[in-house]
Amino acid sequence: MKVQLDHVGIAVQSLEAALAFYRDALGLQVEVSEEVTSQRVRAHFISVGTSTLELLEATANDSAIAKYIARRGPGLHHLTLRVDDLDLALETLKSKGVRMIDMAPRPGAEAARVAFIHPAAAHGVLVELKEDAEGAAKTGWSGQERSARIGIIGGSGLYDMAELSDREERTLTTPFGEPSGPYTLATLRGQRVAFLARHGRGHRLLPSDLNFRANIFGFKLLGVEAIISASAVGSLREEVKPLDLMFPDQFIDRTYARRGTFFGDGLVAHVGFAQPLCGSLRQAASQTADRLGVRAHPAGTYVCMEGPQFSTLAESHLYRSWGADIIGMTNLQEAKLAREAEICYATLALVTDYDCWHPDHDSVSVEMIIRNLTQNAATAQQVIAAIVEGYAQRAECHCGSALANAILTQPDAIPDAVRRRLAPLIEKYIS
Ligand SMILES: [Zn+2]
Fold first, then answer.
1. Catalytic residue of the set 6, 325, 353, 360
2. Would you report the helix, strand and coil content of the chain in percent, each value rounded to 5?
3. Does 146-411 carry CATH code 3.30.70.2750?
4. Is 2.40.30.110 the CATH number for 3-138?
């Protein structure tokens, strides 16, 4: 059994006060922050060499961390040891009569499997055993045990889904900054999903101001393997009518003010993007819409423009001459980053109106746009729920190994900071 120190958990009265020592005085860097509402705890993860410190602050008086501090004062809360095979480790420990809190693995943070050893057995320290991603793959760990298997991005008009149950809010801070808002972890038709409102609660973020990297990295941290992205679009084709759905299979890039890669800073990688959306997820989504009797187009080309202004008439005609079908402002960077994160990605494009090339365009009122957005949001919820319900039946795809031949930088030339920051993406290829 291979055992390595993963991290040390420290219960603190105040994260801000603790950072004055760990960050400011010691010069260490906070890599990821998260708030787990169900456990009423806020955590900062700080890298120290190959290990991590986890600073834990209670957000309510009845949280386990608050009770711990009341009983024993602030200080060492737990050690987390990484093992290559958790099932084997548990068997070994049980056979040696070690007192366990967990007799079987349970899902832990960052999509890992964990089990706790009783402090009485470890001489006063609570010890968490954690199985790393490689071990998890080896033991056939199924996606259902992760925080969420499917991610849903809600665009304009879709800020929540009524059908989500067993909700828990998860606020994450990633190495790329803050996502648009908290992720809602919930159950939808028997699957755990993570929902994110793209433009934030109350629609506060312009397309150009979206932190696409944080949004997609957050889904990766939650263990998501496929993202369904609902987005309002304008139509460039007569036959693609307002209130229709389209599942595009191609993009044209007309953006210029966005960061659309996780790589750089000493790590070079080029993923294939000839087919920018997951064919399997797109096909499943399109068949689902057909089954529900929704007017939907199974393929098409999405022009992603910078915005926030809509197109000029000359641009609208130009895009039509290029063979594009719909136009929007958000999906291309999400698709690029999802591919780099090895997450399947499909766009559910909801047509609100014709773009300005169409003679009807000028007669469209704000009221009509809002009415269409609202109706589209209802359709989107119905279709997304059905896609999630039938998720297990979809065909296989290669999105999960998109990085297999993409990293060009020699492993020993990858800077440590980049290696740590991108561990959830690249660990399996460079360790
Ligand atoms: Zn895929």
1. 353
2. 30, 30, 40
3. no
4. no
